[in-house]
Every structure is written in structure tokens, then in C-alpha cells.
Amino acid sequence: MNFGRGTVILILAAAFLGGYLMRTILPWVASENTREAAPVPQVNDPAIRQYTEALVQIKQRAVFSTPIGDLQDMVASSLKAYLAQKDPYSDFLTSVEYARFRAAGKQRHSGIGLDVEKRRNGDIICYPLPKGPAAKAGIKPGERLLALDGVSVRGKSLPTIVALAAGQAGTEVVVELAGLSGVSRRVTVTRSTVTAPAVSDYTFRSARIIKLSNFTPGTRQELDYLLSNWHKSKPIIIDLRGCGGGDFYAAVDSAMLFLKEGEQIISVRERSGTRSYSSTTARQPPAQRVFLWQDEFTASAAEIFVAALTENVRGTSIGRTSAGKGTRQDIIELQDGAALVTTTGYLVTPRGVQFDGEGLAPMYPLKEGERDTEAFFNKTAALIN
Fold first, then answer.
1. How would you class 60 by CB atoms within 10 Å of its CB: exposed for 0-12, middle for 13-18, buried for 19 or more?
2. pTM for the complete prediction?
3. Domains of the chain by range and CATH?
4. Pairing outcome for strands 114-118 and 91-93
5. CA distance linking residue 378 with residue 375, whole number of Å
6. 84, 145, 190, 210 — which has fewest CB within 10 A?
């Protein structure tokens, strides 16, 4: 997931998970140029020759083939089908689709304040930004996104969904959703420029709590500011419920605020080997106890943060098993303006746990039905006392 969840988010349009848009914006996603990343197969490759010959025969002889643009359609369709069969997070974007996605990041476009995440089963999960257009329209964390303006999002990549949601400020988009009960509904959301803080704090029963909504390039600085003003005798409670993730590097940097220099944060297992990320901060971490609230919608970059603190014995997790989004995707630009979105690595925690599809179990789970802030607070209070 090298696309960080899109923070800019959603601004962009729907904000995609993290940020496919450019490494800073996209959290999990790094953009690569194929000419630098991997050699292009030569025409004398038997597999390429066979594929080209088959395309030509289909174009010339198949009764369903049309003369204009059909070869490009066939190539795009076959690549999309192959990638979808192999990996739910991978996709092929035509030059038109990729151009629309890139345009979604320009300032003239606005969004609906909705971060989204794709699950392994293909479901698109919604994470509305606090006080954003989607939240004001009544969209709730954890609802499944079904369609935008009548166009089904099933089988579509996150960049494609971002492009569908992008548009001019003041225009409307009809969002079709399904709740946990499976009942679908439609809401109309008006696009606007979205500026929502990734880090905030609130008070519950006299306890000060940090709310991490997503991880953006500015998250570490905002979090560091709150910690610098924290009372030395008060435990640090960080609420990551409904945090769909965000920028990979932001999660790594934020975790360093709580770790000693050299302590491992996360590893990415790729075909070429394993790349590890450790704390490089030579500073003393906070002395207070740290409690992390998580639920089934705590995903991606948020899971990196939770694992780094709990497995280095710097945090105590409470709640429910997290989402289990433990892969990294890259955007690889092709020479004709098209692009590949493909999974390039699996995330591995400091203790060697590959949590994709499994999630991270909390150290102190809550009972079924205990979902409200009261339940999380009571469990935390019991552990403190």
C-alpha cells in the first residue's frame, strides 16, 4: 500500500485510500516509470508474439470485433481481467483513466470528504472525514460504497473510484451505499474543497483523547504538538477507530514519536527481498502509558502504527481485531500514458507477523456489542487502575 490513503485527500475526490496520487499524497503509493523499474519484453518473446497474433486474428475475423479502437480495448480488458483474477488490489488503467485520476489531484477539483479502502473480497469501505461533505450527508464509517452516479464501483481500482468522485466544487454526486445489514440507500453529496485535520483531540468523562482520522504528511507534526502539551501524569489515549490508514511514511514517522532509536517499525516483504523501517529519532519517547483504541475499520497505515507501538511494548491496544489491510501497492506508469496498479509487497510487523487478511488482535478485546466510547473508556480505566 504504498498509496497512502489519500489524504489530500479526498479532497480529492473521494479520497482514496491513501493517496495514490504521488508519494506525498498518497500514502501508500509510489509511482514508478517502467523504463526504470523493469525491462520491457522484446518482440521476439514467444508469449508476446502469440498474444499479438491472437489480437490480430480477433480483430480481423471475429464477428464481434469493431475496427476502431478495438485492439486497445482488448488489451485493456485482458490486462484488467488477469490482474483482477490474481490480486483484488491490482488493476490496469488506460491512458484516459490514468489522466482522469491525475487530474483529480489538481486544485480545481474538489471532493466529497470520503476516504475509501478496498478489502480483499472486493468491498469498498467508506471512511468519511469528520465534518466533511460525506459526513454531513449522513455517510457512516464502515458502510460499503456500491456506486457513484449510477456507476458501480465493484471491480474498480481505487484510482478509478477517485476519478469518478472528482469534480467541480458545488456539483453533486449520488452515492449508493450499503450498511452492515445489507440494505442499500442513496445519498446526494455536494462536492467542496475539503480541509479536515488528520489529528484532533476531544474530552470524554474528563479524559483527554487524541483522535487520529488518517495519516497524512502533516500527521507527525500535529501529533508531536499535542504530545508536547500533554500532562505528565495523564495516560495518552489514541483513538484509531475508523481510521482507514493513509500515508505509509506518515505512519512510520508518527510511530517514531513513541519509540527509541533503532526499534523496528515495519518491514515490507517484496520479490527482491525485505525492506525494514526502524526509528531514526534520537529522542526520549513519552514516559506516560499509551493506550490505542482500535476496531474492525482500523486499517492499513493505522495498523502499522498500532503494531509498531504494541510490539515494541510502548502501547496497549484495546477493542476489536483490525481490518487486515497489510499489502503495499505501487503505481507503475507505462510509456503510452497508461499505468499499472499492482501489489508489490506484504507488510510484516516487528515480531514477524504478516497480517494481511487476518488483522491485528487487540491485547484487550471488548465483548461483542461493546462498540461505544463508554466501553472503550471503561476498559482503559480498569487497566489504569
1. exposed
2. 0.77
3. 199-384 (3.90.226.10)
4. unpaired
5. 5
6. 190
